[in-house]
Design a protein that fits this description.
Number of domains: 3
Oligomer: single chain
Strand order of the largest sheet: 2-1-3-4-5
CATH class of the largest domain: Mainly Alpha
Number of helices: 16
CATH topology of the largest domain: Topoisomerase I, Chain A, domain 4
Distance between the termini: 30 Å
Mean pLDDT: 87
Helix content: 40-55%
CATH architecture of the largest domain: Orthogonal Bundle
Number of strands: 10
Structural class: alpha+beta
Strand content: 5-15%
Length: about 375
């Protein structure tokens, strides 16, 4: 399935104009305790309808260098710099919806590539020494088994918080079969995970023996250690899959699998209030695994079709159809998927078919 990863193409599909803040736009300037807005030519914006629209963008007062798109159908509605100088964005809700649709449609493609990723990681972990491919494979294995964020060097320097690729030797304690990672993560929250894996313990132990503070370094052809970055991890995934999957796709996949499993384990109920409480509890479980909030888990890491299928009864009905139906993805080349992963693929394929057929969608609710 071809998905429009290009933002301009996504904007066009959403019926919007693709714009950038390099184009002429409205500017916000201080006026007493409030603000006034200027057109690209510097003249004041007096149209009250524009004022109400701009107010609806909810641009924080602390933002500076504010740019506002003069076209309400622009995919990018506003940009600015926050108090720490970081660039921030306000997008049109229809563009966000289209990008979310693309992101979640990627899950089925990711599931199809996941067995290939796992096979390649296992093969690369068997390489002798500490070549680049082996260290990248170790990072990807940890991405999948711990669900930690991949991290990036700039964020580590600016915030003294870490992800997998920016971990230091001091953040890991390694035994013969056990690895314990403990470090300050996003938002200053301490992340702590323990993993039982003899092969990975052996690899991490050897990485700690290399000179330097960075944990994930490989030994180059010249015998010198070189640190691994998040960009290299994503390039490794691209090399394996032939597609633009990133480290974050593992978290989205895991969040969706966990949510579907938690909701399947919930008691069947015809009461909407109890069903909603079950959804809340499932999002709490996902948040615990991913290390974020239930609200972020639901909006960014759980495929919306899972919650929809639970609320209309299709999720539990699909589980009751028996193992033969659940095993269908395995017969379609996904044999390395775990049972609950195969069940999620089956659900997402079914919901896609229902979305394409109104009669099937309505029958799922009965």
């Amino acid at each position: 399935m071809s998905l429009p990863a290009d933002p301009a193409e996504s904007a066009e599909e959403a019926g919007l104009r693709y714009v950038t803040d390099a184009q002429p736009g409205l500017r916000r300037v201080r006026a007493g305790r409030g603000f006034r807005y200027l057109r690209p030519d510097g003249s004041p914006l007096a149209d009250r309808r524009h004022g109400a629209w701009i107010k609806g963008l909810a641009i924080p007062p602390a933002w500076r260098d504010v740019w506002i798109c003069p076209d309400r159908r622009g995919h990018l509605q506003a940009t600015g710099r926050d108090a720490r100088g970081r660039k921030q964005y306000r997008y049109h809700p229809e563009w966000r919806g289209k990008r979310d649709e693309i992101k979640y449609d990627r899950l089925l493609d990711f599931a199809r590539r996941l067995p290939r990723i796992r096979r390649r990681v296992t093969r690369d972990l068997s390489r002798p020494g500490l070549p680049r491919a082996k260290v990248l494979a170790a990072v990807v294995r940890l991405l999948e088994t711990t669900l930690l964020r991949v991290g990036n060097a700039e964020y580590a320097r600016a915030n003294n918080s870490f992800g997998l690729t920016t971990l230091r030797d001091r953040h890991a304690k390694v035994g013969s079969t056990k690895i314990k990672l403990r470090f300050p993560g996003k938002g200053g929250k301490v992340s702590e995970v323990t993993l039982e894996d003899r092969r990975m313990a052996r690899v991490i132990g050897r990485l700690q023996d290399l000179p330097g503070q960075e944990l994930f370094q490989y030994v180059g052809d010249d015998g010198q250690p070189r640190a691994i970055g998040s960009e290299e991890v994503n390039a490794y995934l691209h090399e394996i899959t032939g597609d633009d999957f990133t480290a974050k796709d593992f978290r989205t996949w895991a969040g969706s699998v966990r949510a579907a499993s938690a909701l399947r384990a919930s008691d069947a109920t015809d009461a909407d209030a109890q069903a909603r409480r079950n959804v809340v509890r499932a999002m709490e479980l996902v948040a615990e695994e991913l290390g974020n909030t239930p609200a972020v888990s639901r909006s960014a890491y759980v495929h919306p079709s899972i919650i929809e299928a639970y609320m209309d009864g299709d999720l539990l009905a699909g589980s009751a159809r028996g193992s033969a139906r659940s095993a269908r993805p395995v017969a379609n080349g996904l044999g390395s998927l775990k049972a609950r992963e195969a069940e999620l693929v089956s659900l997402l394929r079914r919901r896609r078919r229902q979305a394409a057929s109104p009669s099937k969608r309505s029958s799922a609710r009965r």
